[in-house]
Amino acid sequence: MKTFVLLCLVALAAADQSARIVNYQYGIEEDGAYEAQYQTTNGISAKEDGISYPGNVPEAGNYVRSGSYSYEWEGVTYTVNWTADENGFHPVGDHLPDFSHTREHIGSIDDHQ
Ligand SMILES: *[C@@H]1O[C@H](CO)[C@@H](O)[C@H](O)[C@H]1NC(C)=O
């Protein structure tokens, strides 16, 4: 999912080839928790953090990640807050449809087994 977010941002950045990344910060702790953020000179900013924990597959563990990114398009700033965990990627934004009830409609994977 990181790839998806990154590709969206790269696509936006590609529209302005003179844009530069500024204020990039990244830190990771011994337990795997991390925080990262950056801005670009053409109005994109993004930040995220994550914690590592033993999840459904103990030997693999899992990450719970959350973050937000925003960008300007035709004078409007769009912001997406998101979380990502073993249940998927959950974006929230004023310009996005409300996905919060999707699971009620399609059921969880467990319901179909
Ligand atoms: C995103 O998170 C920020 C900070 O918590 C909050 O102020 C803002 O209202 C949130 N935006 C949306 C679309 O949920």
Automatic annotation (TrEMBL):
Query: Residue span of the signal peptide, if any?
Result: 1-15
Q: Got a GO cellular component term for this one?
A: chitin-based extracellular matrix
- Show the InterPro entries listed in the entry: Cuticle_Struct_Prot, Insect_cuticle
Question: Which domain of life does the UniProt lineage start with?
Answer: Eukaryota
Annotated region (Disordered), positions in chain: 94-113
Q: Please provide the record's keywords in A-Z order.
A: Cuticle, Signal
Q: Name one GO molecular function term.
A: structural constituent of chitin-based larval cuticle
* A UniProt-annotated Pfam family: Chitin_bind_4
- Name of this protein: Pupal cuticle protein
The organism encoding this protein is Amphibalanus amphitrite
Q: Which gene encodes it?
A: Pcp_11
